[in-house]
Amino acid sequence: MATPYLADDESVVLATENIRVRSTPYQALILTNKRVLLVRTEGEKISAEEFLIADLRSALVSQAAKDDPTLLLSYVTPRGEARRESIAFTASPDKSRKDEVREWAKKLSDQLKPLPDEETTSPSPPPRGATFSAGGSKAGSTADILAKHERLAGLTFPDIDLSDEPEKEPSRTKTVVIAVLAVIVVAALAWMFLLPHAPPQEISVTPAATQTPVPERTTVPATEVPTIITPATPEPPAKLIVPSTGVWIRVEYAGNYTGTVGSGSILKEVSDTGEHLYQQAITTGSVRAIVEKTDASGGTLTVQIYKDGKVVSEGTTSRPNGEVNLQIDLAAPAATPAP
User: Structurally, how many domains does the chain consist of?
Assistant: First the structure.
């Protein structure tokens, strides 16, 4: 249950107002030293959702020209699955919030743990939401927190009674593997029953003449040999050649994938299939690539970062809906001493 009250060892790091998550407006977004808290009010009721800092893996800024500035959060579910959430900072005609989003990305990045080289499989709680009814006051309530923050001093929230705890959601069992096995068994049985069987060949014997005894000869009629046409094997697509200069991000997957790639604070959303190269307009600094499979197949997704024709970072995954998350800081080349 997500509670808007602060723990004894919890403190507010950053806060803002008027944000949107999945087209749902929220009155406040609060960052503490333990979690990211989303607060929404409806009349005398208040609801809260949270992302634990321990579950977050990255905090990036989306720079789409036509959309509101957006904070992209990557986190891990209890089953070890990588997920992403977009938090849009609603802008007005007389106010740009790009600097505000960058500040949030920096504050969050400062608190996140270093990214692992491989996919994270340790379970941790997903963001959870809970609705509370208005009740008696309590020290450290959301209203007190927001009143102390200069950006949220004008907001008012009812006090919260935490006596009722929402029921836990039942777990769901995946049936994808069972369905695939059933299809394989049915296809095998159909192949066995529908396989054509060749008819037995007939052998005719010509008897010898009665007047002149000659050895009997056995004549086998000629059998028409069917013509077997072997389909031509399609040639595999040619591999893309990575240029020998510059910084490039290479993504290869036989199915569909989606994600974000970029450098510094400038990221680009990608959605494609097959093999593609994405050029980066830098030679030094931070390069990021977060790419996720959009299907549940066991195919291999490969993501590589190249600098001057050489691989400097690489990651793969074969898990259904798996994700590869890469980040590397490219150092400037060492200066050549003067002769």
Answer: 2
